Amino acid sequence: MASETPVVASPAAASPRRRPRRVGERLSPRRYAATAVATFVVLIAVWWAATAFGLVDPLFLPGPDAVVAKLIAQAQNGQLWSDIAVSVYRIFVGFLLATVMALPLGVLMGANAHAEAALEPLIDFVRYMPVVAFVPLTILWVGTDDAQKFLIIWIGTFFQQVLLIADAVRQVPVSFVQLGETLGMGRAGILMRIVFPSALPRIWDAMRICLGWAWTWLVVAELVAATSGMGYRIMTAQRFFATDTIIGYVLVLGLLGLVFDQVMRAAGRRMFRHQRAAS
Amino acid sequence: MTDSIDRSAAPAGAAPASGGAVSAGTPKIAIDDVTRRFGEVTALQQVNLSVAENEFVSLVGTSGCGKSTLLSIIAGLDAPDEGTVTVSGRGVTEPGRDRGVVFQRATLLPWLTAQGNVEFALRGERLSQAERRDAAREVLAQVGLEGFEGAYPSELSGGMQQRVALARSLSYRPDILLMDEPFGALDALTRADMQRLLIDVWERHRITVVFVTHDIEEAVLISDRVVVMSPRPGRIRAEVPIALDRPRGEHSREAPEFRAHAHDILAMIHERAAQ
Ligand SMILES: Nc1ncnc2c1ncn2[C@@H]1O[C@H](COP(=O)(O)OP(=O)(O)O)[C@@H](O)[C@H]1O
Ligand SMILES: [Mg+2]
């Protein structure tokens, strides 16, 4: 009877051969996170080693320990928080102004061929004018207080947002508009109840991307002429060779941008979960 | 060109538009000498067709022969370059709630539930919120979607999405239902289900339907009359009244007339144009 047992599978079949990763194949979330963290760890380790072993002058590149210590000190005396608060306030006002104005114009341009022809080439042209070059002009126009920061952020994000929002509206399937027509809805109803909600996930993405840029324009404006804010602190730190402050603030700026982006991403995923799953 | 030349390829079973199951009186839909061009392409050339009240007419033909264009023109979503379309005695100039449209891909609004999508169509009616809710529930139940009212389109299969789309179109009781390959994207089993459902719904509601399909058996199974179109330029080659008893169902496929009709229509589609 024992001799009748079926042949045992070959040893090769017992241990599954690992298939090579296909082009474009994704990692599991855990592996992804581990790999991403490893990159940061390696980078910080190299930075730390370069400074700890005296390979670079700490005056130009202080070690990560020194940068963190400086940031902690500034957090404790409140300077870091007040600088962040001022900059975030400017971002919010400038960006909100740009968004509130870009929304109706972008929707109009996306939905109406005449508006598109009248405005798109113009806005496309303006958007390629370097924002930085407007800094001196805006100072002459409105001075160096908050209004000038709002204006720079507005110039840097309004035109981009209009174009992105118009594009989001144009992506709405024609069949959705036809559905509205067959239901006897008027143009305004179709625009408000079908086109706009349908374009909203993409509009949200456009806002998220532009918010990221807003940080760049703000810091540019604050570097040139300001008496407060993250950019101003970096500028004064340069005068005192406080490279630890400069690097610390640059890192915080990066972190703030990342946090805002992630918050908006998460909010978008929540708000538009059914829409995203459908497309 | 006259009708008789246009339809020279039709076999003995074919009849002019006003014959067959069509009752006398003014037609519900009258298409007169409609021509539609897209640049070089003549999508429709002098098309004449009339559809009686409560008749179920299918348009069949190879891809690109102008079926969708003709349906869009009846819906008022597109306009002919020449000729006229009359619905219920009035010239068609724009879309309206007297004509419901079911598109090939269920155009459900993804941010609304099944219930929300049907209620969306009922916004144009003078109904209280509660009435609207009940009406939507009822029509969803009619298409077999009881218990799925709260589901979002992304959570529904293709067949269920088409059921919602059908429910949405039925909800506000249009006189005419225009359907453009509504089951074209579904698998064979789901399609058979949907055909049964449509037969059932139509035999209960009795509304005028123009149904575009490239599935000949589907057309024969459901329709009172099948209109065969030919491409380049798009025109009507023949009209075939379907002599199958109602109520129809799977058993109708067994009838000898079913095979004969399907065979004839296939032959007409494949025949090369006479001229
Ligand atoms: N909007 C359009 N622009 C240009 N050509 C079109 C348009 N709509 C349809 N056509 C052309 O008209 C012909 C008929 O198209 P259609 O009505 O969609 O055919 P069917 O639905 O029978 O497949 C095709 O040759 C198609 O390419
Ligand atoms: Mg078509």
Keywords, please?
heterodimer, A: mainly alpha, 12 helices, 77% helix, B: alpha/beta, 8 helices, 10 strands, globular, disordered N terminus, binds magnesium ion
What does this structure look like?
The complex is a heterodimer of chains A (279) and B (275). Chain A has helices at residues 11-14, 29-52, 64-76, 79-111, 113-127, 134-142, 146-170, 174-182, 187-224, 230-239, 243-271, 273-278. Chain A has a single domain, classed as Orthogonal Bundle (MetI-like fold). Chain A is 77% helix and 0% strand. Chain B is α/β, with parallel strands linked by helices. Helices cover 33% and strands 22% of the residues of chain B. Chain B is built from eight helices and ten strands. In chain B, helix 6 (188-205) links the parallel strand 7 (176-180) and strand 8. In chain B, helix 3 crosses helix 4 (129-142). The radius of gyration of chain B is 19 Å and the shape is globular. The model of chain B is unreliable at 1-23 (pLDDT under 50). Classes of the chains: A mainly alpha (279), B alpha/beta (275). Chain A binds chain B through residues 173, 175-176, 178-179, 181-185, 193-194, 197-198, 272, 274-275, 277-279, and chain B through 75-77, 94-97, 99-101, 103, 105, 107, 109-111, 120-121, 123-124, 152-155, 172. Magnesium ion binds at residues 67-68 of chain B. Adenosine-5'-diphosphate (ADP) binds next to strand 2 and helix 2 of chain B.
